[in-house]
Specification:
Elements lengths: L3 H8 L21 H9 L6 E8 L1 E2 L11 E2 L4 H20 L5 E9 L7 H14 L1 E12 L6 H9 L4 E7 L3 H7 L5 H14 L3 E8 L6 H14 L3 E6 L23 H15 L3 E3 L3 E3 L4 H8 L3 E3 L2 E3 L6 E4 L4 E4 L2 E5 L3 H9 L5 E6 L2 H16 L1 E3 H7 L8 H12 L4 E3 L2 E3 L8 H6 L17
Parallel strand pairs: 1-4, 1-13, 2-3, 4-5, 5-6, 6-7, 7-8
Antiparallel strand pairs: 8-10, 9-10, 11-12, 14-15, 15-16, 17-19, 18-19
Helix pairs in contact: 3-4, 3-11, 5-7, 8-9
């Protein structure tokens, strides 16, 4: 078995986060508005679907951010955008013959709570008119704690929001300065208190490691302060430094970033603090309290992974609204225009604002299942997976040879047709999944490092 430094050097290269398969860099214009319209037309009333709304605006741009967003200090652009988003909902509603049931709705961004109360409620009302919401539907919204007020918390609860995801990232002031996101622990305490007092049922925190000037002691302190507030779920994401895709990340001092050997130590430090406090590890980078549905599904083997990361969402259809949003269908993926002029122009002309996508094959579905099970369960029986989909195990002849190299270096156990990643080497799961990614060689440079 080779040492940790050599393992990181050999297996810690660029790899996708695998929130989809195939991943977005491999989408192209073969999926257009016409194809998307056909997919929408095949939705039936008995389908339980999910919705995603993207609000690409923030009051201030954080330098680490990898999202499709822009900063604005005035509300005019946001108001204009919401008019087009509402019109997109109308366009899609007209193309769905039978109203499906909505089991999940996620507001992402950007900062969705940049919206006025009137725009937020009006959009929720439009969605409820256009779709049938399940009585126990989860409605989640991403929140910047710096902008939370009592009235906003009450409005979210009135609109039916059941989960709030707070962008915390890091509490250390010197790290906040290095990423242009200054927010105090007190602000986060107040936000959590206001949301719980208003009746929002569940709170999630997003933390990050691998940030500039961040140390193991910083991440341990941030995790300890997080434990004090007892959010039901915590995600601990590794910062992805991709300035070739997100030019504002050039404002981050690369020399201040933790090295490749330091990053896994930071992730492990956060995990130790959270697990000691009773949180259970969920997949690669999530943690949840034992009574949370994520913990229960992780134990039963029913955990899923989608664009929001690890999830209890079992829907196989996701409709995305807004610039850059991605929809998931049995037939494949479809993504809206990311740039606002093209998005506005398409909607204004009454056209679905589809920029690109990909239609998936039976082989893609099999590979997606293998990758998702590895990401969620750290184990897959390749023989059973192939048998369930009527495929030959011989399809993975090349993958078997590559997996043997992983096994020889101790990163996986490979017995018969069963691949298992031991607990110690779970941080390498993205690299193992990449073995099954038949698209990766043509888009490797678009991804961050796996470790």
């Amino acid at each position: 078995m080779i040492n940790q430094t050599d393992l990181i050097s050999k297996y810690g290269g660029n790899a996708p986060r695998y929130t989809s398969y195939p991943t977005a860099p491999h989408f192209d214009d073969s999926v257009n508005a016409s194809a998307y319209q056909n997919w929408l037309g095949e939705i039936r009333a008995e389908d339980v679907i999910s919705l995603y709304l993207h609000v690409p605006y923030c009051r201030q741009l954080c330098w680490y951010c990898g999202c499709n967003t822009r900063a604005t200090q005035v509300y005019g652009p946001v108001s204009q955008y919401m008019e087009f988003l509402l019109e997109e909902i109308t366009l899609i509603e007209r193309l769905i013959a039978e109203k499906p049931v909505v089991g999940r709705l996620h507001w992402g961004g950007g900062t969705p709570t940049i919206l006025t109360g009137g725009d937020f409620l009006r959009t929720m009302e439009k969605l409820r008119e256009s779709f049938d919401f399940a009585g126990d539907a989860e409605i989640a919204v991403e929140i910047d704690p710096r902008t939370m007020t009592e009235s906003k918390a009450e409005l979210l609860a009135t609109a039916g929001v059941t989960r709030a995801s707070l962008g915390v990232q890091e509490f250390a002031a010197h790290v906040q300065e290095a990423i242009n996101r200054r927010q105090s622990f007190r602000q986060v305490v107040r936000s959590v208190g206001m949301l719980r007092a208003a009746g929002v049922e569940s709170i999630s925190f997003d933390l990050m490691y691998g940030l500039p000037r961040q140390t193991i002691a910083d991440i341990e302190e941030t995790a300890a302060l997080t434990v004090e507030l007892r959010p039901e779920r915590v995600a601990v994401f590794g910062y992805a430094h991709v300035p070739w895709m997100k030019p504002h990340q050039l404002l981050i001092d690369e020399d201040a970033l933790p090295g490749a050997a330091e990053r896994p130590k930071q992730a492990a430090a956060a995990a130790r603090v959270l697990e000691k406090a009773g949180y259970e590890p969920i997949g690669l980078d999530h943690f949840a309290l034992p009574e949370d549905s994520l913990s229960k599904l992780a134990k039963s083997g029913g955990l899923r992974r989608n664009f929001q990361g690890y999830t209890d969402d079992q829907a196989n259809i996701l409709i995305g609204f807004g610039a850059s949003s991605i929809g998931l269908f049995p037939q494949g993926y479809a993504q809206n225009y990311s740039d606002l002029p093209h998005y506005f122009s398409a909607v204004k002309s009454g056209q679905l604002p589809i920029m690109r996508g990909i239609e998936i094959s039976d082989e893609d579905r099999l590979r997606r299942e293998i990758i998702e099970r590895l990401m969620c369960n750290y184990s897959i029986d390749l023989g059973s997976a192939c048998a369930e989909r009527g495929a030959s195990l011989g399809l993975f002849k090349d993958e078997h040879r590559r997996l043997k190299e992983f096994a020889d270096d101790g990163l996986i156990a490979f017995e018969g047709d069963v691949v298992t990643i031991p607990y110690k080497f779970r941080p390498y799961v993205r690299s193992v999944c990449a073995v099954f990614d038949s698209y990766l060689q043509t888009g490797k440079g678009r991804h961050s490092r796996a470790i």
